[in-house]
Amino acid sequence: MEIKSFALELKEVGDAGTFTGYGAAFGNVDQGRDLIVRGAFAESLSAWRSKGKQPKLLWQHDARRPIGVWTEMREDDYGLFVKGRFTAGVKQADEAYALLKDGALDGLSIGYATLEDEIDRAAGIRKLVKLDLIEVSLVTFAMNPAAGVTGVKAQPKPPRTIREFEAGLREKFGFSHAQAKSIASSGFKSLEPRDEDGAMNDLLRTIKGIRAGL
Length: 214
Description:
Strands 1, 2, 3, 4, 5, 6, 7, 8 and 9 form a nine-stranded mixed β-sheet that branches. The protein has helices spanning 42-50, 91-102, 162-173, 177-187, 196-212; strands at 2-7, 17-25, 34-36, 56-59, 62-75, 79-86, 107-120, 125-139, 149-154. The model is unreliable at 10-14 and 190-196 (pLDDT under 50). By secondary structure, the chain is α+β, with helices and mostly antiparallel strands. The protein is built from five helices and nine strands.
């Protein structure tokens, strides 16, 4: 398996959750004198999708340390766009988030097998035409500054008080003050504290569906 690393460019850091960026940039010669052409990942991504899966999200290319899941991967004009989500409660995932927030972690790296390449001897570069993408890792060192994480977004949190719940009903779903207060007074109190997060999210989804049908 070959490896290529890219610098991270953080735009936003919130609570551990989703993040987006580029696992690779097209048409850019890296420090190893390699250039990835657009379409290099197309067949590999299609094969992953046919299996209902995505390449692995690892820590430092260590197959024993997955830190989350890639929820989206696609090629665009710029490169390999990736969207991932840290797995809450996994120690290494929590540490990776802390390092991102502190600016101590600044690398994103792809692990792949080369299926087709072209050597441009005059320019002294290798064009990577077709790659089998295996995994994308967060790493310490970067080889190419043209790609990386562009944003880290917090996972939405459920309301913790009845006032937060009322505000959410008004702001997110368009209920009046009186309607929100009525729903909150009858619905919020019935939720058992031990199941607050899951029950609250279920209730909000139900309310959103009802509101959409009105």
